[in-house]
Specification:
24 helices, organic anion transmembrane transporter activity, mainly alpha, 523 residues
Length: 523
């Protein structure tokens, strides 16, 4: 599972923390937003007199939340909690309706997925997978193959593990390879590769591939689960695990190929061979030792989760939605149930004698509670608030009013134009604020527009959700960007140029891909 909050980026930056320029930008943006948020709330309450009180109050709360999310005046989760409390205080909804949203099935999908991902990190399973791929004969001898291999690893792992955690795991491996190769190069009178086009391409590949890889599965990023839930809430349609994968897998594959071409064309490696890289990878693998019981147990837990997530969708494909077994699974084997069952296994499967025994005499579990609670609870709070706002938007009629008004003002009337609007809006907002907040801002806007224009709202809603995971131009766009920028190997101009080109091509691939694939998947 991806956890995604820019406030955690600095903590994850294992190099040198945030650069001074980024610190100043964040500080100025936060101070401005702190005052603008309450002002936006007050202005909406005082001026939107044409709306019913519930709609006006909810619109005012949304204005405050959007301003504080974009500027990150206070932590995103704190803004989310304040927003739902204001909904009760201003009479938009009662406390049972508002706080009841935290019983959503997706909350438990988050919990289970986060716990499984935590176990992977604790036992080093994700690092072992990465080093195993890099140790395949000849991969890290070639600078081009090394960049592509790191990208492939980041894509696959981030489909199930936090993009920030994926980058934090691959980042030191990449730094180590650059350091080992650069030391040998300088000893022989060659170039210091720490500040080369190749090292910049490697760092950018780690960050960008981790961001696009999460699109492969719905549980790959919090903003995707939030966006999907908002779409389902407002349309009444569902997008199951298998349908999501069938829809986005071809898009992710094309985007990865495009990413490799863009990065290697714009950052052409200066060297033809990386001397010393294979030795470094071998040393790192030796330090991991043999495959542990903890890693094996984590694999079992993960396999159970994947089976639970995919079985209802696969059964629907072969048996049909009306089959008794399929109906039972859709009702009882939800994604949240599967995630919690799989995560609970980590507390039941023993490690053997490696951790000793507890007071009761039971052997130590694969994951202890003190290890499990270190997941990102802020994302869970953020999701709950997004669900509340989306539900209240529909119940109060604000979503319909807003969609009709925006459609008239923007002049969008076709499925293609609304889908393009959704992609561009998601991309632009994600460049300056959290991906999770971007989905919460854009999806409730574009879905009502689609409904008002009587076109399929699932397509622009899913495109807006996916585009909210973009943001490749700036260090502040995503935690992965901030981590690799802090290495000192990626000049700002190189990140902006590479990110801008990939943004343009990536959005085009996304829009065309979803419009083409959605009918084939049955959406």
């Amino acid at each position: 599972m991806k956890t995604e909050d820019r406030s955690g980026a600095a903590a994850s930056n294992t190099a040198a923390g945030k650069p001074d320029s980024q610190e100043r930008f964040d500080s100025i943006r936060g101070r401005i937003g702190l005052g603008l948020g309450p002002l936006a709330l007050a202005l909406m309450l005082l001026t939107a007199v044409g709306l019913e009180w519930e709609q006006r109050a909810l619109a005012a709360v949304l204005c405050l939340m959007i301003v504080w999310w974009v500027t990150e005046a206070i932590p995103l989760a704190a803004t989310a909690l304040l927003g739902i409390v204001l909904c009760v205080f201003l009479g938009v909804g009662d406390e049972d309706t508002v706080f009841g949203a935290f019983g959503n099935d997706t909350i438990f999908t988050f919990l289970g997925g986060f716990v499984i991902a935590r176990s992977m990190t604790v036992h080093g399973l994700d690092k072992r997978i990465a080093l195993r791929v890099l140790s395949v004969g000849g991969v890290v001898r070639s600078p081009v193959r090394t960049v592509i291999a790191f990208g492939g690893i980041a894509c696959v792992i981030s489909a199930f593990v936090s993009n920030t955690a994926t980058v934090a795991m691959l980042f030191p491996i990449g730094i180590g390879i650059v350091g080992a190769v650069s030391a040998i190069s300088t000893e022989k009178g060659g170039q210091d590769l720490h500040h080369s086009r190749w090292s910049a391409a490697l760092m950018l590949m780690i960050a960008y591939a981790a961001s696009i890889g999460g699109l492969l599965t719905p549980i790959g990023a919090p903003h995707q689960l939030i966006g999907r839930d908002l779409v389902e809430e407002q349309t009444g349609e569902t997008v199951n695990f298998v349908e999501w994968v069938l829809l986005f897998a071809p898009i992710v594959l094309v985007m990865f190929v495009v990413l490799c071409i863009v990065l290697l064309r714009l950052n052409r490696p200066e060297v033809r061979e990386l001397i010393g890289a294979e030795e470094y990878v071998a040393e790192q693998r030796a330090e991991l030792g043999s495959f542990s019981r903890g890693e094996a147990n984590t694999c079992v837990s993960f396999a159970v989760a994947v089976v639970g997530w995919t079985l209802p969708g696969i059964s629907s494909l072969f048996l049909g939605d009306d089959h008794e077994a399929v109906t039972w699974m859709h009702a009882h084997l939800t994604e949240g149930v599967a995630a919690i069952v799989a995560a609970t296994l980590l507390f039941l499967l023993p490690l053997g004698g490696s951790r000793g025994t507890g007071r009761s005499g039971w052997r130590a579990p694969t994951l202890t509670w003190s290890e499990a609670v270190k997941i990102d609870w802020g994302v869970i709070l953020l999701f709950g608030a997004g669900t509340v706002v989306g539900s209240l938007s529909s119940e109060t009629g604000l979503a319909e009013t807003m969609g009709t008004s925006l459609a008239d003002h923007l002049g969008v009337s076709s499925l293609v134009s609304i889908t393009v609007l959704a992609a561009v809006a998601g991309l632009l907002i994600s460049e300056t604020t959290s991906n999770t907040a971007s989905a919460g801002i854009v999806v409730p806007i574009v879905v009502p527009i689609a409904v008002a224009m009587d076109v399929n709202p699932l397509i622009p809603g899913l495109v807006a959700t996916a585009a909210a995971g973009y943001g490749f131009m700036l260090p502040v766009s995503t935690p992965p960007n901030a981590i690799v920028y802090g290495s000192g190997m990626v000049p700002m101009t190189r990140m902006i140029r590479s990110g801008f080109v990939f943004d343009l091509i990536g959005v085009t691939v996304l829009v065309v891909g979803v419009l083409a694939m959605a009918p084939l998947v049955g959406l």
